[in-house]
Amino acid sequence: MKIRLLFAILAFCSLISARVVINEVCYDPAGADLGKEWIELYNDSDNSVDLSGCKIYSGGTRFSKDFEFPYYMLRPQRYLLIGGSEVANAHFVHNFRFQNGGSSSDGICFVNADSSYTDTVIYDSPNDNLLFDDHGFPASSCAEDAPEGSSLARVCDGWDTEQSGEDFVVEASPTPGAPNHVYADYALFDPLLTSFENAQQLQLSISNLSLYKPLLSAELLIYQDEQLLHTEAIAPLAFGEERTIEIWLQSGYQLLFAQLNLEDDPNPANNSLYISALGTEALPPLINEIFPAPLPGKQEWIELYAPSAAPTRAEYVILDASNNRISFSLPNVPGYFVLCRDRDALLADYPDCPPLAVIQVSTWASLNNDGDSLILLDASEENAVDAMIYSSAQAVSDLALQRIVTPDGSIVWRVAKANPGQENTVHQNQLPEHAEKLKILGSPCDPSTGEVVTVSYNLPDPANRINCTIYDLKGRVVRQLADHSLVEARGLLSWDGKRQNGSYAKRGLYIILWESQAATSGKVLRKQLSAVIR
C-alpha cells in the first residue's frame, strides 16, 4: 500500500516534460540473465541532472527497490548505462532482478531523489497486479513483451507520452548506451518529369509519414538504367514535413528510377519510383525470377518486374510448354510482383519479401524440373509480352533462376539464391574472380542440403559454344549440363547432384568433361575436371 500511495502522490508532482527517462531496457538477455540485464537512462533536458539518491524499482506482483545511485551528474542529451558484470561499457555495474514478463504485466520505474518525479515502463499484459504508471493509476497501456535477446526501446530518444504501449517498441538490435533506432517512414510521391528544349526538370516530393524525426539524413539517388545520375542528402524531416526536390537533367531520358535510402525505414516499398517521360507509353512487365525446384513441402513461384506504371490494372496470362495457364492482374504501379499459390506460406518462407508484392493465384502451371518454357501474354492472349526457356541443369534444388542483362544488352538466366519481391541478387560483377579458364566450386557437395557443384568459366572469347557432361567412374553419363549452348565469356553452370532422371547421384567421385569453341576464332578448349558428392 505504501508503494501505491507513493505513486499516487508522485503523479501530482510529475513534470510535464520528462527530464530523465528510461530510454531502453533489456530484461531478458540471451541465455542466463545473471550479469547480462541492463537499463539505459537518457537526459532529455537542457541541463545536467544530479542522480544522487535516485532509485530504480522493478515490479512483478509489486514494485521493490533494485538500485540506488551514488553521486553522478548526467549531462544534457547523454546516456547512462547500468548493467551486470557482462554488460560492456556500463557506467555502473549492478545485477538487476527485472522480471521477464509472462502471464501478466511487469514493470520498471525510475524515481528521483526527492520523490517528485517518476518514469515508468509497464510491459506485457494483462496488468493483473495493478502496477501503477506515472499518473498514479493502474497502467492500462502496456508495452509489448520483448523476447529473449531483444530490448524494449523508446520509439526515439526521450519520446514520452507516459503511455508505455505508445512509447516503447521491441528492438531486435539493442543499442545500449547509444541512440535508439528511429523507424521513421519516408515516402516518395508526385514525380513529374518536364521536358524543355535542351534539358529536363525532375520534381519529386518527400514526406515523413511517421510521428518521429530520424537522427540521420536520407540519401536520394536518381538512376538511368544502372547509371547513377544524381545524388542528394535529405536533412531529417519532422512528422508530416514535406519537401519538394527539383533536379535538372540533360534531355532525352525516357525512364528514370528514384531511390530514397533512410536507415531503419520500416516501409521501403514507398521509397522508390520509376518516372516515365511525359507522353511515353507504359513499359510491359518482364519475367524476372523463377523458383522451379523447391524443397519438399515448399512452393514454386514466379516474379515479374513492372518497370513503369500502367494506365489501369492490367490483366495477363502465363503459359508453359504444355499450355497450362496462370491468369492474374497487376496493379497500376511499377515494382516487383511475385505470383504463387499460397501467399501466407511464401511470406513465412521469405520474411524480407514485401507483402504488397505477393499475388496469390487460383490456378498454377507447374514449373518442370527437367526444363520448361514460359510465355507472358496480355489479356487478349494474342500478344506475347515476354518469354523465357530454362533447361534441367538450371532447375537447381532450392535455388532460383534470375534474369540478368549483360553489358551487350543480351539476356541470360543465372542460378542464384532466391530473392522474391526485390532486385535480383546476381549481377555481372558478382561472378567469382579467378585467373583459370575453368574452376570447380562447391566440391565436395552434399546435395541433400541444397548444396551444388558449380563450374565457373572465364573464357577469352566474348561468345562461345559449350558442351559440359558429367560421368561416373565407369564412363556412364550422369548429367548433361550444356549441349552446344551459346554463352558469353564469363558465367556459371551448376549441378545439384542429380542424375538425368532426377534421382540423386551416389556418393563418390565424378568426372566433368568440358568442351568449348570460341565463336570468333574457332579455338577449342577441352578439359577434364572432377567433383565429389558426399
**How many H/I helical runs?**
3
Let me know the average pLDDT: 86
- First-last Cα distance: 69 Å
| Order of strands in the sheet with most strands | 8-7-2-1-11-12
CATH superfamily of the largest domain: Lamin Tail domain
Radius of gyration, in angstroms, nearest whole number: 30 Å
Low-confidence stretches: 1-18
* Helix/sheet category: mainly beta
Strand content: 35-45%
Helix content range: under 10%
CATH architecture of the largest domain: Sandwich
Structure notes:
The protein has 534 residues and is mainly β. It has four domains: 2-171, Immunoglobulin-like; 186-276, Immunoglobulins (Immunoglobulin-like); 286-416, Immunoglobulin-like; 432-533, Immunoglobulin-like. Helices cover 4% and strands 44% of the residues. It has three helices and 34 strands. The strands form eight sheets. It has a six-stranded mixed β-sheet with strand order 8-7-2-1-11-12. The protein is globular. The N and C termini lie far apart (69 Å). The relative contact order is 0.07. Mean pLDDT is 86; it is low at 1-18.
Please write out the topology.
Layout: H1 2-13, E1 20-26, E2 38-43, E3 49-50, E4 55-59, E5 63-68, E6 73-74, E7 79-83, E8 92-93, E9 106-111, E10 118-123, E11 151-154, H2 164-167, E12 168-171, E13 186-195, E14 199-208, E15 218-224, E16 227-234, E17 242-250, E18 255-261, E19 272-276, E20 286-291, E21 301-306, E22 314-320, E23 325-330, E24 335-340, H3 343-349, E25 358-360, E26 371-378, E27 384-391, E28 400-405, E29 411-416, E30 438-441, E31 453-471, E32 477-495, E33 508-518, E34 524-533
Parallel strand pairs: 7-8, 24-25
Antiparallel strand pairs: 1-2, 1-11, 2-7, 3-6, 4-5, 4-9, 9-10, 11-12, 13-14, 14-17, 15-16, 15-18, 18-19, 20-21, 20-28, 21-24, 22-23, 22-26, 26-27, 28-29, 30-31, 31-32, 31-33, 33-34
